[in-house]
Amino acid sequence: MKLEDQVAIVTGAGRNIGEAIAKLFAEEGAKVAVVDMDEGRGAGVAEAIRSAGGEAISLVADVSVSADVQAMVAKVVEAFGGVDILVNNVAITDKSGILDISEEEWRKVLDVTLTGPFLVTQAVARRMVEQGRGGKIVNVGSTSGYAGRPRAIAYQAAKGGLANVTKSMAVQLAPHKIRVNQFSPNMTGSPVGQEVFDPNRKVMNLAGRVGQPIDQARVALFLASDDSDFIVGENIFVDGGTMATASFA
Predict the structure, then answer these.
(1) Structure pTM?
(2) Domain count, the chain
(3) 171 domain residue, yes or no
């Protein structure tokens, strides 16, 4: 197994991409902390992992609140003895334009989608440095971080910022043998913040289909495993070829 006896934290793991990552990591031998704001969803994913023979705990934490983050990491360490892998998956989006978005909505999207990964990475990386055995950090970006869209602006800013923060994290943590990378989905599963998955959702990619959460989970596994040992500070588009075309918004 690729992640045997390693401890992984996956944020936003109660549904969609995060859920798929948590379950796949557990199948590959990781002890998984399922972190989600929805207690019921997180507990359901953790229970499914345990029922399948894996090890998992569920934790509720608001990644935009430093005290929540610190408490969450402490609970993971208490339960599993350390942290080896972090997947910063949690995100929220807006559906607003520059002319109508409120300052409150702008700040909330950036707090969760950009500041959240910063706070969780900082707390986890400090623990990894103390442990002295390195680690892997995987940020979940988006094709929305690389171009404008007519239906959102704060989400674009947050994901664009995450792409560059990922590189700085990689540069600063590499001396501690902590590898940081990012992958960027497009049109995968249900939209951010929505429950309903429409398999007939219109897509503009080269694969000709909507992405499935497992498509993203497999790349997360690659970046969290030794298979990607020589990849640092990079972004992988997992988008069915969307970014190879001129129009994806």
Answers:
(1) 0.94
(2) 1
(3) yes
CB 137 within 8 A of CB 169: yes
Q: What is the pLDDT of residues 34-50, one digit of tens each?
A: 999 999 999 999 999 99
Contact status, residue 125 vs residue 73, Cβ threshold 8 Å: no
Domain containing residue 204: 7-244
The catalytic residues are: 155
Instruction: Identify the CATH number of the domain in which residue 17 sits.
Output: 3.40.50.720
Record the tokens describing residue 212, joined without a space: 């499935």
Q: Which residue has the tokens 């030794």?
A: 226
Residue 227 falls inside a structural domain: yes
pLDDT in tens, 178-218: 999 999 999 887 566 555 556 666 778 999 888 999 999 99
Distance (Å, whole) CA 83 – CA 133: 10
**In sequence order, what E strands does 12-127 have?**
31-35, 55-59, 85-88
Q: Measured between alpha carbons, how far is 60 from 40 in angstroms, rounded to an integer?
A: 10
Say if 249 falls within a structural domain.
no
Give the pLDDT confidence score for residue 204 in this predicted structure: 82
Average pLDDT over the chain reads 94
29 inside domain: yes
184 DSSP β-pair partners: 237
